[in-house]
From TrEMBL:
It comes from Vreelandella maris. Residues 28-370 form the D-isomer specific 2-hydroxyacid dehydrogenase catalytic domain. Its EC number is 1.1.1.290. Pathway: Cofactor biosynthesis; pyridoxine 5'-phosphate biosynthesis; pyridoxine 5'-phosphate from D-erythrose 4-phosphate: step 2/5. This is Erythronate-4-phosphate dehydrogenase. The gene is pdxB. Catalyzes the oxidation of erythronate-4-phosphate to 3-hydroxy-2-oxo-4-phosphonooxybutanoate. It comes from the Bacteria.
Amino acid sequence: MKLVIDANIPAAEHCFGHFGTLTRVPGREINAAHLRDADALIVRSITQVNDKLLADSPVRFVGTCTIGTDHIDQAALAQRNIDFASAPGCNAEAVVDYVLSSLLTLAERDGWLLRERTVGIVGVGNVGSRLQVRLTAMGVATLACDPPRADEEGQAGFHSLDALIERCDVLCLHTPLTREGPHATYQLLNAQRIGELAPGSVLLNAGRGDCVDGLALRSRLSGKGDITAVLDVWEAEPAIDAGLRDLVALATPHIAGHSLDGKLRGTWMIQQALARHCGQPSEFTFADICPPPALASLHLQHALPPEDALRLCMRAVYDVRRDHDALQRQTQHHGMHKGFDDCRANYPLRREFATLNVQLSGEAIALEGLLRGAGFPCSHSEDF
């Protein structure tokens, strides 16, 4: 069996080597020639898997080690009788970590408190639902918009996008990209809606770049300049708009979900799917491929202002400013296309909040509810 695999998929040899011969190719470079004698294709989000790529190939299985599937033409796969698997939820926790790190960073820069804001969550799937749970546990008010789920489950608990724009201080987008149908998300945040954002609002997009009208957002940021934007996803990646990049408070190269844990979870989920496709038992567990963290615990002994404590623990694991700075540096030195892809291909090791146990003693025990809500395991320590 021959497998063509994105070169950036971690633990590929460990998870897929026993199936046959692996050919590792950078995701943007995978083409039809690579698949002429391949039985399986394993990708991440940057490879466009469509009829043109699969023409004349014997591929019988396609897997994407990601939550999103808009880069996969599933109709073409079905027509060719090709089995398909994705990894829903694999990096959802990492994306929530990214959102919390971003919002706490903005709060520190601009002098506001997250717990005093109302956060609107657009798209309450694997990521949005987890974000809502964590924010609620942290004492942050949230409103949710998800028309497809509202249609299925009823309107209770859901609000319109326009209601979120009117009532929320922070708007977080976590939608897939759909271009047609009653709930299309292409340019969901269009010029009109961007114009309706209240002064002082924060717009964060960690869903899909084409869900926001980039030209309209750039116009609002360069004109009135009275809102703040955080973008991890962009139109026309990797050739993103340099003008918009320079106006965004936190600009990152589509890495919100790039924790080691999330990537490995995606690899493992596709390994399980391929084993089922081949009719083979799988003896792998996620624990078999996930290494222990370099920093396993942190001890807080004294009381801190709540959001200072959150930032301290978050930055011990992940600091979004590193990724913002890397995008600026790499795109300025190497050009937009290469710099953007270099950030992704050479992304540094990052773990999830859940890998850090926070030991609490003395007055710091009062922070337990907040830290657990944010996603950190906590324990009590009387050693100090």
